[in-house]
Task: inverse folding
């Protein structure tokens, strides 16, 4: 079968969920049978396999309904179907999961096999954190997060009389014409400020709910609750604070130099907000941004050639996604503006959602998201139990970020030598300018959930964000501009949708640089280690996963300083 782009029709077919799959009674008898079964130590493995298969089935329905809702934020019926599932299926499944966990933990004489030891410990810890009161409150939490998705998914930008999606408007920020960038930035700011009051209200509701979740679980604050919920056992909040300080001291000066050198090359007296896009830094020679493709299909084709050059099996996996409606790349009205990789466990198939507009940044993001997809494929192949797939979140971005680097030497069909040098340099500089943003995002959440006053206000959030932004992005000149716009920088996807999930990007970027560093010496060995680490899935502790990939689990000052020195060398020692 010849590889072809995933049509919207194929995507819709892939995301179809039968009506019965949205009904708890479809699952309840089988869960009850597991609960009623007489269980001995010898019978646990087979019992776990049946439980895993049932959890995978329910999880897949949830994933498909959620993704379908993200593709149709403007369709009330689709939104309602997902919300009904969240309200009517998730709560009883969580209660049943707690009962099954307690049943497992009570089996006399049972010793988990090596590949289940870590998951067994996580089950025990999760059972201790479980509270009945948090089941229904969790539904409220999901509904509040969905309000954010709907608000931002339907957001439009009016620019020069034209109505654009957020990704389309952001593309204008890459224009070498400063007046075009400024107009686009101001139009985006106007759109963001228009929706800001509604997002403020959502955030206040989320803070209240998250504090209540923590209180119900007898935790002092939501950070402590989330720390346990995310199974963070290999580092502490104090380690995160040290990371923030190390980035401030070791990375912010380098980022400042990069940005100021670009500004100097362009003859700019200072760097204004429309001159700085951490995801796609301006070209210091004022050249147009690289636009290597026009359509989603063209992006898929150029990515396939890169994978074919890198590894035949990776190329085959990507081809499978193309042929089976597992890619939806085009930007459309009513489509959630973020990019992510979803996972459907019963068939071990990942799904990638993006909003491409034709830039080189889209190329990088596709490699990133498909790196996640490879993680799903390989861990699913190697790990029969659904809970053992993927990995702890401290590792989960390595497969994606490493793929951004491992493809660098396989893009000769996309860029000429000069363009490839630009793309490569931007990728390396992008790591440096990303780290201050990651530290700021993490520091903000530590303050919000562990230090902010009980009666915290939106004005407090705005003020804290301003304080942190001045610390981590001192090179952006806001003189004469409305700092209310700057203060709303915290209104970002992860703050609403994935609290405390951000420092992992920094950890994994540092590791990905280390993996790429190793690949410069031995490409085949680095790729083998990459795939072997992915196969270990969620059944191996974080430090061991890093070692399997050929890197260390470190994000301390000395480690950061060493990797910055390596990047400076790769960039020609000009920083």
Result:
């Amino acid at each position: 079968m010849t590889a072809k782009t995933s049509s919207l029709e194929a995507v819709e077919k892939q995301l179809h969920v039968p009506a019965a799959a949205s009904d708890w009674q479809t699952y309840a008898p089988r869960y009850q049978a597991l609960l009623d079964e007489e269980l001995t130590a010898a019978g646990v493995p087979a019992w776990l396999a049946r439980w895993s298969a049932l959890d995978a089935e329910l999880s897949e329905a949830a994933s498909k309904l959620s993704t379908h809702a993200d593709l149709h934020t403007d369709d009330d019926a689709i939104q309602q179907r997902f919300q009904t599932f969240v309200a009517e299926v998730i709560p009883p499944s969580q209660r049943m999961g707690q009962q099954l966990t307690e049943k497992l933990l009570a089996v006399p004489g049972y010793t988990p096999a090596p590949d289940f030891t870590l998951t067994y410990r996580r089950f025990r810890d999760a059972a201790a954190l479980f509270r009945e009161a948090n089941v229904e409150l969790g539904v409220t939490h999901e509904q509040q997060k969905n309000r954010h998705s709907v608000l931002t998914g339907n957001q439009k930008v009016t620019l020069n009389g034209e109505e654009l999606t957020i990704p389309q408007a952001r593309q204008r920020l890459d224009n070498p014409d400063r007046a075009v960038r400024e107009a686009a930035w101001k139009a985006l700011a106007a759109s963001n400020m228009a929706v800001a009051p509604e997002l403020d209200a959502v955030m206040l509701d989320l803070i209240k709910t998250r504090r209540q979740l923590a209180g119900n679980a007898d935790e002092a604050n939501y950070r402590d609750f989330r720390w346990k919920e995310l199974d963070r056992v290999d580092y502490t909040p104090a380690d995160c604070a040290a990371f923030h300080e190390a980035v401030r001291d070791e990375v912010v000066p380098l980022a400042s130099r990069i940005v100021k050198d670009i500004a100097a090359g362009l003859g700019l007296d200072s760097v204004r907000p429309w001159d700085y896009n951490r995801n796609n830094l301006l070209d210091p020679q004022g050249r147009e941004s690289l636009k290597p493709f026009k359509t989603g299909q063209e992006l898929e084709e150029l990515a396939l050639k890169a994978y074919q050059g890198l590894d035949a099996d990776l190329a085959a996996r990507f081809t499978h996604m193309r042929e089976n409606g597992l890619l939806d790349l085009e930007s459309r009205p009513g489509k959630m503006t973020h990019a992510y990789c979803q996972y459907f466990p019963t068939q071990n198939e990942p799904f990638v959602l993006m909003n491409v507009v034709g830039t080189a940044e889209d190329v990088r993001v596709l490699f990133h998201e498909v790196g996640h997809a490879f993680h799903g494929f390989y861990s699913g192949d190697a790990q029969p139990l659904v809970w053992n797939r993927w990995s702890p979140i401290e590792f989960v971005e390595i497969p994606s970020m490493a793929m951004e680097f491992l493809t660098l030497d396989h893009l000769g069909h996309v860029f000429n030598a000069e363009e490839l040098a630009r793309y490569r340099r931007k990728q390396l500089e992008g790591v440096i300018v990303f780290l201050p943003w990651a530290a700021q995002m993490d520091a903000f959440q530590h303050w919000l959930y562990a230090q902010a006053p009980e009666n915290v206000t939106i004005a407090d959030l705005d003020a804290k964000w301003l304080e942190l932004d001045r610390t981590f992005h001192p090179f952006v000149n806001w003189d004469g501009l409305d700092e209310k716009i700057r203060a709303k920088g915290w209104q970002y996807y992860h703050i609403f949708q994935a609290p405390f999930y951000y420092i992992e990007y920094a950890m994994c970027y540092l590791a990905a640089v280390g993996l790429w560093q190793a690949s410069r010496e031995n490409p085949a060995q680095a790729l083998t280690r990459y795939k072997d680490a992915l196969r270990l899935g969620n059944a191996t502790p974080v430090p061991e996963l890093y070692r399997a990939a050929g890197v260390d689990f470190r994000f301390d000052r000395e480690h950061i300083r060493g990797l910055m020195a390596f990047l400076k060398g790769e960039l020609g020692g000009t920083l």
Summary: The first strand starts at residue 157 and ends at 159.
